[in-house]
Amino acid sequence: MHISPLAMTILLLSLFCFSALLSPLRALTLPSDTSALKAFKNAIKPATISPWSCLASWNFSIDPCSLPRRSYFICGITCNSDNTRVTALVLDPAGYSGTLSPQLSTLTQLIHLDISDNSFYGPIPSSLSSLTKLQTLSLSSNSFSGPFPPSLTRLTSLNSLDISHNALARTLPQTMSSLSNVRTIDLSFNKLTGSLPKLPPNLVELAIRANFLSGSLLQSSFQGSSQLEVVELGANMFSGVLNSWFFLLPSLQQVDLSNNSFTRLEIWKPSNKDSNLVAVDLGFNSLEGYLPVNFASFPLLSSLSLRHNRFRGPIPLEYGKKLSLRRLFLDGNFLNGKVPDRFFSGAGGSTLSGSFGDNCLESCPNSSQLCLPLQKSPSMCRQAYGGKPRSVSSWF
User: Fold this and answer.
1) Of 14, 115, 250, 311, which is least surrounded by CB within 10 A?
2) 187 vs 194: CA distance, rounded Å
3) SMART domains per the record (predicted)?
4) β-strand 288-290 against 261-265: which pairing, if any?
């Protein structure tokens, strides 16, 4: 049968248009990525997938990465530019409950994984170490249990790790320093035990508050931590001496080591005026001795808490001369003698907040907010100083 050139042209155009209409239905996403998404959803209890949630829109009768997404896969995933690979899995905080499918490890182009603020439980799959391009891993505020998988330290592209507010237990892997590009780590509010391992070299912020870490803070753990700005290790079981090298870390700005069991504090003057230390919280430890005068040598220090320890002796006059100090908490110790006048003068008293209460001070007026709560009883102070009188002149 002979077909004219015009008829052939019309036929080809029709076929082209028909194929164009069908193209959105063609499977674009790599089949293994689609299978991983199916396994991920199947591991979540259906009763916890609300009709308005992201996961409720995941209908695998269409391709996950196909466009436009008007009714299905409207949120929760991001695909690459050619719509063939999943690059981000970021869930809404909708109360999803279930385990984390190990099959997620086949999403090898994944850059961001964030399922925080839900109710996932069980162990964190060690197979997630296959996600070698992962930059953000956030599993915070769930109920994950078991150990921190040592295999996760092979995620060398990772720059943010947040598994806070879970139930991770046991010790941290000694290979934590292998996370060579990580900038922030938050493992707070878990059940981690043991000592602090060597930290990653490019770490800027470290938060492992409210766990059961113990032992001393060793200089070897912080070796090479030249970019570390924030350290939050409060509410653990650290003990021993806090040595001066720690406060001289070159980029250190904020420190929270409160609610531990440290017994002694060594503070050296910074060797230059370039120290960036701004805030220090060492409250609720077992620190003894005199208040460290050298804290006054840190040029930018504006907040200092040494409350509820076992410090004795007078408040250093240098503290009263430090103009950058805006918050000073010394309550709950056994300090005696007179408070530097500057704290109650117009120049300093109007801007300083904090407390000198619950000590053995002689000249802290009850009319000042800084002197609340009231000082300890004379009998308690005499007992603390071996029955000697409270006057500061008695010590020199």
Assistant:
1) 14
2) 14
3) LRR_TYP
4) unpaired
191-194/212-215 β-pairing: parallel
Element (H, E) at 247: helix 244-247
Are the CB atoms for 222 and 206 separated by under 8 Å?
no
Per-10-residue mean pLDDT, the chain, length 396: 51 43 61 98 98 97 92 96 97 98 98 98 98 98 98 98 98 97 98 98 98 97 97 98 96 98 95 88 98 95 98 95 94 95 65 93 88 93 76 38
CA-nearest of 81, 65, 165 to 115 is 165
The model scores a pTM over 0.70:
yes
3-state secondary structure of 34: helix
- The span from the CA of 218 to the CA of 385, in Å, is 33
CA distance 164 to 351: 35
Residue type, 151: S
Task: Please state, in angstroms and rounded to a whole number, the distance separating the CA atoms of residues 170 and 225.
Answer: 24
User: DSSP of 143-180, one letter per residue?
Assistant: EEEEEPPGGGGG-TT--EEE--SSEEEEEPPTTGGG-T
Q: Taking Cα atoms as reference points, which of 106, 101, 105 lies closest to residue 32?
A: 106
Instruction: Look up the CATH number of domain 104-395.
Output: 3.80.10.10
Residue ranges per structural domain of the chain: 24-103, 104-395
Rounded distance, CA 167 to CA 53, Å?
26
3-state SS assignment for residue 109: coil
